[in-house]
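To fix ideas, we give here one paired sequence and structure record:
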Amino acid sequence: MAALLRGSRCLAGKCHNHVNAAQVSIRSMASKTQVGFIGLGNMGNPMAKNLMKHGYPVIASDVFPESCKELQELGAQILDSPADVADKADRIITMLPSSPNVIDVYTGPNGILKKVKKGSLLIDSSTIDPAVSKEMAVAAEKLGAVFMDAPVSGGVGAATSGKLTFMVGGLEEEFNAAKELLSCMGANVVYCGQVGTGQAAKICNNMLLAIGMIGTAETMNLGIRLGLDPKLLAKILNMSSGRCWSSDTYNPVPGVMEGVPSANNYQGGFGTTLMAKDLGLAQNTATNTKTPVPLGSLAHQIYRMMCARGYASKDFSSVFQFLREEEGQ
């Protein structure tokens, strides 16, 4: 029903702002129909759970069958491929590691677009190259479907608590339809503009996050070397002008905070490999737009070095440990 409604409003890219009362009624009646979810990793798993908590039946798929077990036990229907999910659901969310994964899940031999229904809403929450988001949107539009990019910020903790920030790019006419689902998984759902602008916002955020985390790690390490207690130093930073998310919410020094990766040998959280990937995307877009990003470039090199030295699977805050080892401790 939702698919028929969306299809009637948006075909061949000709969308209309006017939505009459009957259409709104149909949309709300269909609101708790099943939702497809592809990619049940560290982020996708808790996101899909939150959809289920809000009463949405979930149809899911993941390339690793073991990732589906927990969700299946909670009542989700597990299918073999993205194409199978597209055959059953007309609203699908994808949460995947990288651009090649997204291309395969959407356009591969068993991809969503092989069986997508006309009028389907496809929301990609992966962090990928904005150009790839635009390519997927064009491919979806040719089949009468709507693609939106909606990358997230907040990490596994926010994914679990339903407090993610979504940065959404795509047709403004479809934003409310996307927001209905995304609000079940996030505290902030922000419309950024056309397809690809969500990715642009996410890439900019993560470049700043990496620079801030490295700066926090360097600062904490210097203070410790100067004889300061790390908890005291963190307290002072967090009531001073140096305060940032990496210092007050996600401190990289073991023992300073509970419930963060640094308190658990840097397990869980946001992997160093993924941060290096996002910084690579920032570098590519900076090169294409001729934008100078010297600190972003340096952060990219640091995280690439970390990946080569055994930190790939650790949380990105392990840059503190990396710096300690670099100084021979």
The chain has a mean pLDDT of 91.
